[in-house]
Amino acid sequence: MTRDKSVDPITLTVIWNTLMSIAEELGTTLRNTAFSEGVREGDDFATALFDRTGRLIAQGNFSPGHLGSMTACARHAIEYFPPDTLRPGDSILLNDSFMCSGHFPDTFQVMPIFVDDGLVGYVACSAHQVDMGGAAPGSQKVHGVTEAFQEGLRILPVRFVREGQIDEDILRLVLGNVRMPDKVRGDLLAQHTANLSAASRLQQLFREHGDTTLAQAYEIILDRSEAAMRAALAAVPRGTYSFDDCMDDYGPGTDPIKISVDITFDGVGAVELDFSRSSDAVPAAINSYINYTRAYAIFAIKVFCDALQPQTEGNMRPITVTAREGSFFNPAFPAPSGGRAILQVRIFDAINGAIAQALPHRAMGAFSHWSNPNIGGIHDDTGRPFVMYDLSLAGYGGRQGRDGVEALSPVMNCSNIPVEVHETHNPVRIRRLEFIPDTGGPGQWRGGCGLRKDIELLNSTAVLSHLGDRHRFQPYGLFGGGPGALGETFLNPDGNAEPLHSKGMYDLKKGDVVSFRLSGAGGYGPVDARDPEAVREDMADGYITEEGARHDYAWQAEPK
User: Fold this and answer.
1) Which residues touch 194 (CB under 8 Å, ≥6 apart)?
2) Is residue 215's pLDDT more than 50?
3) Domain that residue 205 falls in
């Protein structure tokens, strides 16, 4: 394009790298100043930069569910606060499920950036708050929640900061409705501080290069991002590829939730993902608002088609995500959605299953599922509420040429929160944290193992809001690979080992141990094609037992 000639390549490179650096640094500042474990250790946040019209220009490498929702969130903020109503130092706060990333714990702050009293763009960041009120500690109770009004404090866009001064009335209103006001306050202020740091750097970039040059650079970045994505999509064989899977259910005694996707590549550079065949919205807090559905659908397409390009508004343009209104993946407010976090792996798995038909060399067996329980109550020693927000992450599916790896974050880009952090901040003791042998799906390339985490309650009482899946439907294997083992959860595994539902709510007492056992990941390729030496190495490493090797691979011990 002729616009490419208006900014020389060196200047363009400096601008582009600086923009990405600002977005990453914004996240680093947020992480290093946050109060909660979920943000500070779990990396449950995201960052972004926008131009003056709200177009996404650059993002940090953080949580895809937040990142993919940022554009819609920023535009809703701008609709409520048009540019001529904003002043230097203002900042907008919101957490609405439909406008943002699908549930109230995710708070977004969007800050306009001014240079010489002229609006030049916006910076934004999100953070998963440890609690936003509602029916249970952590605000992620699923079963028994039938409308969004039960889920906690809903914040439509408000001017949280006015000309550099935090609105103490708004802050007091928020903190008066949450169980952990100190941590929520700390994380909200960390978001504001992080935006301030990014704003300073972005203002400096404009002063160095000028508004005209930055505007030209933005157009080039967006156009080239779009062109790269269209070229990658055009390389996928034309056609419609479909896949169906199921969530366990939405609470004890309920039916499975059908997850269906139809993906149409047009062969010339565009793709549409349609989730309309999925189940209707359910009367429980696990529905996926369209922004969240779109976020992980876009992420999956990038993974398979254009993984290394930074995400901008440009490379989102060729991707259309739809779902019929009222369906599980496009509910209408006030559908509850507090536990929607558990869906992100399943959205990806459905897309992976469909794209495996077109790009088998890039697909993989289904991921292990993950566990996102919240354990909360009143701390015996302090008399104050506590909420243990946990992220337990297990294995990747096998893929062409490589076994699935263990204990990494599938899809969501967060991190296992360290045992020591949980035990320092909450009245719990982690009794076990280990891989579960014989749980990875067998195949030419084995799926990753499941993960076991046993948590003992040291407090007199607490409430567990369980948030897991794959207790009924195994993670699938591909091209002859076997499925991963089912997940399980038990109360007091060394006692009567009472099974717990994957989305149930339970009262705990001192000494109770909850044993979370995540499913294994799916295998890839024919089981009988696995190298016998790889089987021996797996046994030596403890990934499979000798009994498992005989059962899954017909392995026979060498005579002594």
Assistant:
1) 26, 27, 29, 30, 33, 47, 125
2) yes
3) 2-226
